[in-house]
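Human:
Care to share another protein and its fold?

Assistant:
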Amino acid sequence: MPIHKNLPVFLGAWLLSAVPLDGLALDNLLIDQPQLPDILTASRLRQSAAEVPGSMTLIDRELIRASGARDIPEILRLVPGMMVGQRRGNQFNVNYHGTSITEARRLQVLIDGRSVYRPGLATVDWAEIPLAIEDIDHIEVFRGPNTAAYGANAFLGVVNIVTRHPREDIGTRLKVVKGKRGVNDWYASQSFSTANSQTRLSLSGIEDDGFDTFGGILGFRQFEPDQDYRDGRRGSRFNLRSAIQLNASQSIDWQVAASEMTRQSYYDYEPFLQPVTPALGGYDSNITQYAPKSDYRNRDYAVQLRWNNDLSSDHNLQVLAYAQHMERLRDWRVCDSPLVFSPELQQLAGMTSLGARRVSRWLRTPRIWNGLTLPEYMEGSMRGTYLPEHGELALQVEQQRLALLDSEMACWDINQNLRESRYHLEVQDTLRISEQLRMVNGASVREDRVNSQTYFGGVLNNRIYQLFSNIEYRPHQRLLLQAGGMYEDDRRIGDSFSPRLASHLFLAPQHSLRLVYSEAVRSPDMFENNATWSYPVKNLSGPVSGPQQYYITATGPGNLGQEQMRSRELGYNGHFAEQGLSIDIRYFREQLRDLNSQPLKIEDFLPDNESEANFRGFESQIDWRVTRNDRLRLTHARIRFDATASMDQRLTPKHSGSAAWLRQWPANWHTSLIYHGADKLNERRFERVDARIEKRMQVTPASQLTLALNWQQRLDKQGMTWRENLYDSPRQYYLSAELDF
């Protein structure tokens, strides 16, 4: 049924709820369930799911285990409206609702409140997060803008990964996972307690081969049939967490984490004179065949401390401080025509990067342009920006090319090394003023730092100040009003304010209808706004005379504004205790403006605030404990959208969702069956069924052995997000063995 035809049903329910409810005797039908888990992520106030000012998905430990997931993004497939794709076998992209397919710039991701959103390149490297899935207690996902509570990065939503308290894992745990496609994971942890503290040390590793062989064209390269697709990974992680109870009212929780990851990568330097297709032939066939390894060496480090002080039963003070450092190291030797060091080409690229690209395309395949001269071709294809001096420079470059026919390659060392650091200090004060009124207020300061000669020409810093407040007022037991906002002062962007207003009408204590209005912003990252992207030339060899400077430099505009969003939501959240049934339904309209949706390539680096997108639709999630041993979970998202940028039009399926059945059998057998589906993810269908069979055996009174088989079956024949992301077989399986003692 069309969305607009369903809207009167929701509005009618809202209006009906405005009449006196005592006469409806709804409390007898909708029984309260005070044991439901509280939500912390939404507003920074501890709330039940029916009180949250927006839509929440809570993925508990049982569901995480039943999924059999080896990566956090695989778990997020269980969130309605969450789009999980892969650029390569070792690189996930996670977006809520959609927008940019290549980079997930608009989703805040936290680990126990610490942001792992990269400060320089505004994305999340899921593979490098220094956290094993075995250490996760649950994941809270706020679906919708939450800048009011977490600042400019929480543009489309917030994922908060909450780790298990050390007291819950006292003892030793060992686990190994082996399977197809090179799967070779391991995990070991040791937890112990003293009179006033609990500590857990965990070590883990992950390894696989990524996607399988591939034959075809990827970017500018021609892959031979059955050629190995280099997108495997191998990494290790360290995590130490300790909770210390200082006295009856004060506690400290601290963590130290680190990870090291090697990710295979294909050679993605694009030569200036590479043939467009092998069938056309072209210049420099030796450059075509040159493709050395160019793998990533990545390291992440973090230290975090949270001090909690219960000043009274109604007043709490928290201080959160953390520091983290990320390194993305990648260096290799590239080869190209000596033409890339031409001063005339450099001058042309400085005047118009589009003109330089047109010259490159012309020189690659000159015979297909129907007798046009190079200036004539440029004039007809440069969107009205062509100038006569562009043609003059282009002709000089063409003459230089003729003089370099069949010349020796020019080769030199380049790198894409980047180091990013963040230092964050936050104070949060939570106060219950009365039974009807409570609030949370806080302030934070954050220092971001990037260091890269390639991307920034050196070191760049940014400082951000935040003031936030969320107020909850209950004038009547049936009515809850909430207001919140975040004021931010970004040294490089300016200041902004993001408000949120919400009202809840309760049919019963755990059943509410909600209306939410919120505004959000996303600040451009330092790479978008302040890049100075060039390739310093080192150890150059080949027939190059004169200046040794690569012809193109990409420079950020420095004046990008913030992306803007307005969101309206009408929803229902309810829990039927006797039936063990929880339901959340959401209708939303989201208007996104001033988006930067341009692809950021060194030869085409033109970030702007010119794009727009609109999302509207329904999301629903149902969690039903049918019996003591059976649990069903269903999610669905139907999204209608329009976007002015082509890249923003490709990621959002009209329909997506999941269906899960978890079952506990006699003799400690556990099974799960989960279906994931999306009708169009980057224009490709995705359907997969995941099955898990688990047996738990008590070895001794103090030890338990768990064996599990995980099976994944693709039901479609599409590539994963991109056409080249294919497996030889639609089936994947891996076995795990876990010992607890």
Remarks:
- Residues 409 and 533 are 23 Å apart (CA to CA).
- The mean pLDDT is 88.
